[in-house]
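Running this now, will post back.
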Amino acid sequence: MRVLHVITGLGVGGAEQQLRLLLRHLPMRCDVLTLTNPGPVADGLRADGVRVVHLGMRGNRDLGALPRLVRFLRRGGYDLVHTHLYRACLYGRIAARLAGVGAVVATEHSLGDGEIEGRPLSAGVRRLYLAGERLGSATVAVSDTVAARLAAWGVPAGRVHVVPNGIEAARFRFDAGVRRATRARTGLPERAFVVGGVGRLVPGKRFDALVRAVAALPGAHLLLAGDGPERGALRALAAELGAQHRIHLVGERDPLGEDGGGRAPGVPQLLAAMDVFVSASREEAFGLAVVEALAAGLPVLHVTCPAVDDLPAVQAPGARRIGTGGEELLAALRGHMEAGANRLPVPPVVRHYDVARSAERLLDVYRLALHGAGAAPLRTPPRAAAGPEPGPGAAADAVPAPARPAVAGQPPHALAARAAGRPGNGPRPGSGSAPGPRPGPDTGPPRPGGGPARPGNG
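Update: finished.
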């Protein structure tokens, strides 16, 4: 049994980190191929003993990547291909079919009502997504909310399987000693009231609302873990409000623990240093950072979080849903500040999202996909040898005729042409001039500063 995971990039992000966690709990050896950006998560995967290959894709319209991917799949002899994120799902499904891989699973990590992977959805992007989806065996939704969105798009219910994101809860268990040490290392006063957030610094996360609210609370501090194009704007806003010394933007941090040889506290350590966690984004597909904060015993304020909202309230008594208004956020934070720091018991929702349970559910999806492809039953024999790793300059194989029709009589290579944005062939996903982090399904070039999605979120 040989499984290949294909992902758009491996920078620090929720989907990327979730892949790393799942591979630790799957009972077979898997390879990972990243189309672009073999970033920090690639290093973590290699440290875990996972083979990681960089395809060297130059942009959404780099059609030369398709035959390189087909050749890699043929040489690897993979029984199942599992794709993650928009570009990888589109190209990975096409390549798998051209290579004769019968079982193809895709996980939808970041589908919102009006966005996908943080970028606006258009009718063209939706059509292209649906065309590619039909080439797969099954689509995994990370929450009931995402499954409902896929159903509203017209994806047949029998093709959609909910496998929620998961965490290793023990990593986030609160420790008072870690709290003191982390505050000292990040310049936070030992007794200060600290508001926290984790995520990609992009407009959709609305971290500016946190900056404004904390600036209006004398003595309060804001601790933000993440990086992105809004970093400069957030610093400027803090200075404008006279709160620059109370706003701490610490950059990307390892979602699983300490990185840099223990020199920089990771997300679990930063959560220990916080007193309340806020997720202000209007759209989420899951809300992994909220679950991690609850595992750390933090009270949570969130605008939307399917991981919590899809369950009965008793599962997460420490989570409170708020609106998008600044006054409501400020009032809620003031109430927590006046009540003082108060660590909560770990709620049932954390056990519900144990990553080992998610891995078991994913294995059920694999079994269904393999059964539909007529493959042998799922088992875990010794790992087979693989062919050489392709690089950006790898030669392309000739593309064979597809084994079966794809969408509405169009073969897979026609979908590839549509993905490239050729005239008259549908929308043109964004392109980049060089390999970069998680390019989205936009209809123009990526925004300046575009990069991997927020850490800790899915």
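Residues 380-458 have pLDDT under 50 and may be disordered. More later if anyone needs it.
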